[in-house]
Amino acid sequence: MKLFYFFFILLLFLFSCNKDDEIVLNEFSEEINFDISEWVLKGENITCVDFDKDGNAWIASGSNLIFYDGLNTQSYSAGTVIQDVSVSPDGRVWLGTKEKGLARFSKGEFTFYTSKNAGLPRDYVNEVEVAPNGKVWFGSAAHNLGGLMCYDSGTFSLFTPENSILNQHVIQNLKVDRDNRVYFATLGTVGNSAVFRIDNQNNWKQLGGDGSFYWISSLAINSKGEAFVTVDYSLSSSFGNENYLAFFDGKKWKKFETDFHFSILPRMFIDKRDYVWVYGYGTVEGDYPGYFVYDGQEWRRSTEGQIPEVFIKSVKVDNQNNIWFCTDEGIFILKQ
After folding, report:
1. pTM score over 0.70
2. Considering only CA atoms, which of 145, 158, 168, 85 is closest in space to residue 119?
3. Cβ distance 30 to 58 under 8 Å?
4. E strand or H helix at 8, and its extent?
5. Which of the chain's termini has less CB crowding within 10 Å, N or C?
6. 123 within 8 A of 117, measured Cβ to Cβ
7. 70, 83, 115: which is closest to 318 by C-alpha?
């Protein structure tokens, strides 16, 4: 009997170890909260934020990298505008900069990887994402120049339309899931935006085959690795084209039917419950703007005035499912 009990406890231990990195959706409340819980750095122009394993926030504001532990802040100057920030599992902070390429911040010091010392196509890095396995993915490109780059254990790799299945050079909406799969959209010319995925075996795939979108304004991945995009026709002069939300069902892209209108350059993200958040307007003329949230069964929306009328530059969801909205007037947080 004691032997059976020992093996039973051992199995429970092994099972719990295998679940350490899994996101259990029902740990979070099903309620949707649109009320602001906190303003961080109110009045500051904030570009983006990411979080370390201890829950501390690393915030980009102009050329400053700001550390925020929930009570205090400490600022470090990168000497160039910070365009994106991503914290690696080992705690090092990686930055995409406007003029100094890819940057790494560790132990109070910045290290810059540029066209001169690392072979970047240009010193303008618009997006960066660190995978759970430590690989750093980032975009270093312009029209007909550069593409997607990867930094892995001291080695830089560049992927372009000339040496990969990429159809354009410019990389946007870079995402990495918990299984180290990389997702991103290509931009450059209207009508040619496409979504690509690189799996953890380094297999590349264009989601939906050779089909492309007019323009992709946002891309999000849920906990199951399913891709969602908002398609934007704001640059179109033709009549009748409306922005919309689509998801990839594993074979093709499907349009999400909604009873509201999407904003210009529609913003969309997915929280830890796999709820889809989209910024838009109701169908009544003159209706107020706000967020519409799909919980898997129906859409809910914020009431008038709940979401501040400030310019939202980016949105990040922390590990507690709190939603951080980075704006030109600071960060406001919706705790879920």
Report:
1. yes
2. 158
3. no
4. helix 2-18
5. N
6. no
7. 70
